[in-house]
Amino acid sequence: MISAYRNRRAARNAKKIKKPVDVEVAVTVPELFRCPISLELMKDPVTLATGITYDRENVERWIYEDGNNTCPVTGVVLTSLEPVPNHMIRRRIQDWCVENKSYGFDRIPTPRAPTSSSQVSQILSKIVAMRNKGNADGVMELVVKIKDLMKESERTKRCIVSNGSGQVLTETFEAFSYNENQENFSVLEEILSLLTLILPSDPETKSGLGSNRSLHTIVKILKLGSLSGRRNAVLVLKELLSTDQTKLEQFAEVEGSIEALAKLIKNPIDATTTNASLLAIYHLVTPSTSVNQKETLITTFLETGLTEKLIEMLVDCTKGVCEKALGVLDGLCSIDKGLEKAYTNALTVPVLVKKLLRVSDVATEFSVSNLWRLSKYAKSVGDEESVAIEALQVGGFQKLLLLLQVGSSLKTKEQASDLLKDWNLQRGRVECIESMDFKNLKRPF
């Protein structure tokens, strides 16, 4: 049952193990000392409820990261997911390593006991006490301590999250937001850094950051914080804006919030920040809000020059960035002002056609939607030929024909069919196929 998993794990471990140089190993690691998952010498043996002993790192990955609730060897559903340290086996392994030191086996160190719920509760209580005293340095020290603990293992992370860390941290963030001096600003950035680790695992924490005061502080960090502070602020925003329409509206009302997000696209920090910023913007420009509010938001983004930057990014970017950038562009093009910006950019149509069938199904659907919007806009301004001619010159007609054959959503098929009807009228005037766009496709057209 776990053979495939175990083989993959063993292969990864084989690359990490440093074998003794110029030593002919004449001993074999006893089967009892080997982890059934990795087949490697156990460093921190723990026993599950079924009585089978594993190395802690491997079995916790099996349980917490891979989401299994069964014993890897027996397949029996576990009555408890908490592994128990096997001190007897660990001491025997240590003794065996000492006896075989001449063969290159170093004594494994005694592992530190995993973080307990009581330890987490004590740290959180200290944070509350320090917060009530206004002691920013004390809070900072404790927040850093929790961050270090979370890096230990997935089990420790789950322990920290399940003991109410999110609520304590969001309350502390709001408390220090009322006095944003330099000392407090640093601890606010540190708390945000920790919340980026907690939020994906604890959705309830999002509600704690929904206050107007907290959102104002996040925007301030987005504008004036350090590079890491701005990065963490947008990672938190991505989580907040993805599920709560109310927070979308509250954030949009904060002065300078839209410009701060657009700046992260125009002056990128790293790929993670760019992806998070694009996703946050996407939620803002495609909300189920009133037409007037949506138009106001999009207009503000347009005034920052976001359209031009997105099209420039699309010329050469990763799959993730491409999908999100096309999604944001589709949102911007949902109003006439956004269509005008895209329509007047010479790169728009060629770039959109290039992305058809080249990146992913998501990118293709957004590209078709954008081309369809632009085509309708060109008709409305009395220039219905321009988009068609540009698209035909870079092989757009053949790509849409192929798209109808390989399959797509109903909406995308309808838009593609509309475009083909319009473009077909111009095929006699100009047409050019870029064969390089089709060389990797498995189906002929």
Automatic annotation (TrEMBL):
<keyword id="KW-0808">Transferase</keyword>
<comment type="function">
    <text>Functions as an E3 ubiquitin ligase.</text>
</comment>
<dbReference type="Pfam" id="PF04564">
    <property type="entry name" value="U-box"/>
</dbReference>
<dbReference type="InterPro" id="IPR003613">
    <property type="entry name" value="Ubox_domain"/>
</dbReference>
<dbReference type="InterPro" id="IPR045185">
    <property type="entry name" value="PUB22/23/24-like"/>
</dbReference>
<comment type="pathway">
    <text>Protein modification; protein ubiquitination.</text>
</comment>
<dbReference type="InterPro" id="IPR013083">
    <property type="entry name" value="Znf_RING/FYVE/PHD"/>
</dbReference>
<protein>
    <recommendedName>
        <fullName>U-box domain-containing protein</fullName>
        <ecNumber>2.3.2.27</ecNumber>
    </recommendedName>
</protein>
<dbReference type="InterPro" id="IPR011989">
    <property type="entry name" value="ARM-like"/>
</dbReference>
<dbReference type="Pfam" id="PF25598">
    <property type="entry name" value="ARM_PUB"/>
</dbReference>
<feature type="domain" description="U-box">
    <location>
        <begin position="28"/>
        <end position="103"/>
    </location>
</feature>
<keyword id="KW-0833">Ubl conjugation pathway</keyword>
<dbReference type="InterPro" id="IPR045210">
    <property type="entry name" value="RING-Ubox_PUB"/>
</dbReference>
<dbReference type="InterPro" id="IPR016024">
    <property type="entry name" value="ARM-type_fold"/>
</dbReference>
<dbReference type="GO" id="GO:0061630">
    <property type="term" value="F:ubiquitin protein ligase activity"/>
</dbReference>
<dbReference type="GO" id="GO:0016567">
    <property type="term" value="P:protein ubiquitination"/>
</dbReference>
<dbReference type="InterPro" id="IPR058678">
    <property type="entry name" value="ARM_PUB"/>
</dbReference>
